[in-house]
Amino acid sequence: MSDPVPLTTDHPGQVASATPPAPGRSRRLSDRTLAVAFISPALLLLLAMSVFPLLWALYLSFTDYSATRGGPAHFVWFENYTAILASAQVHLRALTTLIYVVGAVVLQTVLGFAIAYLISRRTRGRGVLTTLFLVPMMLSPVVVGLFWRFMLDAQFGVINSMLGSLGLGQVEWLTRQRTALISLIVVDTWQWTPFIMLIALAGLTAVPKYLYEAASIDRASEWFKFRTITLPLVWPLLLIAVLFRAIEAFRLFDLVYILTNGGPGVSTETLSFHVYKVGFLGFNTGTASAYGILMVLVVIVLTQLYLRYLNKLKED
Amino acid sequence: MRYPQRIGRLSVSGRKGRLAAAILVAATVAACGGSGGGTQESAPKAPATIPELTKDPLTLKFIWFDWPPAHALEAFANAEYAKERPNVTVKVNTVPNANWHDAMFTQFAAHKTDFDIPILDSQHIGEAVTNGNILDITDFVKKNIDVNAYNPYLLAAYGQYPQAETGKRDENASMYGLPLLGDTWTMIYRKDLIGDKPPQTWDEMISVAEKCQADHPGVSGLAFHQANGSDAAAVTYNTVNGVYGGNLWDAKTRKIDGVLNDAAGQEAMDVLVNKMKPLTAKGSGNWFIDEVNAAVAQGKACIAFNWIAASGGLLDPKQSTLGTTREQILDKLGFAPLPSQKTNLVPLGGMGMHVSAYSPQANQAEALNFMKWFEQADIQKKWAAAGGVPSRTDALASPEFLNAGPFNKVYADSVPRMRDMWNVPEYARLVDIENTNVNAALNGAKKPKDALDDIAKQQQGVLDSGNRKGGGGL
């Protein structure tokens, strides 16, 4: 048994501490003060850059304020909101956005999961393949929009050139009502399928191997294993990826701006693009703020419903 | 896999959360209080006499969109203005054409600009004046500028507000800018395909283009602006509307519905969509300045329409397949004023110089001095020789201008025929309505008559929405 550690020093009355305070630390700084000091810069930044503008936009949404006209902001209460909800223009953009969100997210989910499933079954080169598939996601949407605009050009674009070499006719990808929206969905899918793939791959690699081994012993078919093991276990994670993508797709702006500018006519104008026009063409800041707040509300309500479903799924 | 924790629930202490929210709301309301106490602004006045100029180094900043005249202006100003003011450097900041309006007016909205001289489209003046974003230079013009040296309509178009709807300058109206660059559309035609003599009427032009397209597979009969951005498709329709005797609006009564979509307007839309559009290249429904120039330079169009100020590149052998020298290209390309039909109207393009109300005083003084310098007769001729399009009558008739490019005579001949769009604060919304609907008609997304009726109805709604309570901009 070793000697006990002395509890006193040579100076009577001075109690030795088992864990001496860090050198230089003031006695006034309690743990709580330190915690506040460390998080306050981030908190202030968050308040200044996110919460405050949101509240300001909320205030402006009840007024007729215009950023350029500069006059007083008169309260119009819910007039902006009722005008937006009753506007046929807004209904049209909402429908376009809905078609776009459903089309893009469904396509990306199917493709992303399929690619992830195929990659997860490989034992060699999985890392390289995953990295290569992630490249589109790392590019700026503006850059993606610009080079797809060239590729989809009806006259000199590489897509029509390839179709021509196959004996097929020219397609006006960006200037016809149906093909323009399809083109937007295709370009968004090209860029964001890797995101779904990445999440799905994480879920697939986390499925315990012994479940497959047990199923194999029971001579279960591949389809049975996929339907009863793979899909149920990956599904909740996949739904989170779908949620993120749906929110992103709902506020699509950049690709529309670069590829079609909302055309032909207004047939590819999404809600976000329309908010931009309301906000910057006539500088109707009050209306644009109300429009933005309504979009946020839609996202919050749909997300809450979605999360309730997700939680129920997990509890089951 | 198990997910023991519920997602999407945030636990915040009730009292603290409510306190934080209350503080934030109070701070927001306090901060917003400033925006509610102001009054409607009007343009501040510039002094009649140029204040004393600084001797310190100063950078005079312009803002324009990215095209050849912007680069020509920067080079010209730094070469020539520096001779008079060696301590001044001129910088022409450029943005993409589609962002031009937003780039200027978002800074105006912030009441702080990183430019001293905004180059506004003639139709932007109303919005800038009403919001008090640019200086009223009426007194400055009276004391420093020889207004009689200009074509009165050009002076009015690029500086006066309210604009001269009749095409004549109102000498009692206030001035907010001075001409920087004149412009209009030129007809560009392939002499080797349709002959040396350009078509004289719009109907003749269409039939010549039709024949040329049929005779030369792979070459489209026509190329013109159809895009739904900027003012592309709108200018195209307005041009045809003018040529076929239509009107954009009745300025006195502010009436559009029933004027734009009258019989002449309908005929113009029918000509554009059913006669001209079939002669364009497939997929050209989003073409603007660059795409039209590319089609001409690649030899893919018999007849094209484009802004004169953007046509210089067509003569550059490096950018063209029509010849290896400027002369060879000019053997094949001809430039002519637009054909006439029921009227001989042509679109007014170009821009004026203005002074930002939020620029420092030293920079505002320098901007006024630059404008006075720029509008001198000999400087306008030098600007013409450098590739600019002047507005002074003497400069327009000068050999320096007429010999600088094959299209400059087209401009000089077109000046008496010009018509502008509406110069009202609601311009940005009016032009967007027209752009999107004409673009829809050109690309088969709307029937031509429906598109024109929609334009008239929606534009009228914008003009009539002055007293609307809430929902402005929809």
UniProtKB/TrEMBL annotation, chain A:
The chain crosses the membrane at residues 34-59, 98-119, 131-151, 192-212, 224-247, 288-307. Residues 1-27 are annotated as: Disordered. Residues 94-306 form the ABC transmembrane type-1 domain. InterPro entries: MalF_N, MetI-like, MetI-like_sf, Sugar_ABC_transporter. Signal peptide: none annotated. PROSITE patterns: ABC_TM1 (PS50928). One of its GO terms (cellular component) is plasma membrane. Keywords: Membrane, Transmembrane, Transmembrane helix, Transport. It is a multi-pass membrane protein. Its main location: membrane. It is found in: Cell membrane; Membrane. GO terms for biological process: transmembrane transport. Belongs to the binding-protein-dependent transport system permease family. This is ABC transporter permease subunit. It comes from Microbispora catharanthi.
TrEMBL record, chain B:
It comes from the Bacteria. The keyword Secreted does not apply. InterPro entries: Bact_solute-bd_prot1 (IPR050490), SBP (IPR006059). SUPFAM superfamilies: Periplasmic binding protein-like II. The keyword Cytoplasm does not apply. Belongs to the bacterial solute-binding protein 1 family. This is Extracellular solute-binding protein. It comes from Microbispora catharanthi. The lineage of its organism: Bacteria, Bacillati, Actinomycetota, Actinomycetes, Streptosporangiales.
